[in-house]
Predict the 3D structure of the following.
Amino acid sequence: MSEVKIGALCWNQYTDWPSLLEAGIRADRLGYSSLWTWDHLYPIVGSAEGPIFEGWLTLAAWAGVTSKVQLGLMVGANTFREPTVTTKQATTLDHISGGRAVLGIGAAWFKAEHTAYGLHYGDGPPERLRWLGEALPVMRGMLDGTAPSASGPRYAAKAIRNDPPPVQRHLPILIGGGGEKVTLKLVARYADMHDMGGDLATVKRKDDILREHCAAIGRDFNSIERSHGLGVVVIRDSRDEARKVAATLFEHNGRSRIWQDQPVGTPEDVAAQLAPFVEIGRSHLVGGFPSPYDEESMTRLITDVKPLLQK
């Protein structure tokens, strides 16, 4: 069985700043491998008419109060910023954190926040994916110090210096999403890490397609670290208690409907649900933790569930 890594995705919506900051400190203290938040400007779970903190600044604050955990957006919205600026932000985060940054990126999808903030949304997913495909070589080139240029149609840049370079010799790019014709092809060409959610059959199919895209360009499929978004994790000694806690979390987050088929239950329940993903190589498991960041669940995912997955 593959080495198991556990990540924490702490939702930056419907929270106050001290609680969000403390959630990151807790993840580092507990020994999580990675720590993530969203890149959104409006809440995406429950009512969109609620509070949310900006993602990059959240990561920068976490970087100053943590020491070991990797830090990234799950995932950055390519449409929000020029790829040159995004890369500069990731590089700066790498210095603030002492070499723990991941550049997470995706094509973006939430139209309401783009409209409200006056951001380019494009005419649909195909165009936004074309923009992402245009942005990625700029990002990789800047991170690697090759002074890349871009000449449109979406982005224009000229011999960009990224000085100082990242602390990491190869700062990883994570691409999120499972689009079979475009997104996974971009993963094969540019990503060091790939994240997606979904049921086991779906993830297996996407992995097979990603393997084909890698073979087509001569890339080792196993050189891509594959993470799996777990949804909302709630762990208690009884299933009924875990379900009650989960219901309160969704209610707190914009009175959202309760998501189904989540890793909610006893440690043994959760481990049984996650083990098949580890067995197929999706061994970086990223648990979702909504505000108010249930401390017992964050703790027991590391102390109770992770050992069961490593047996």
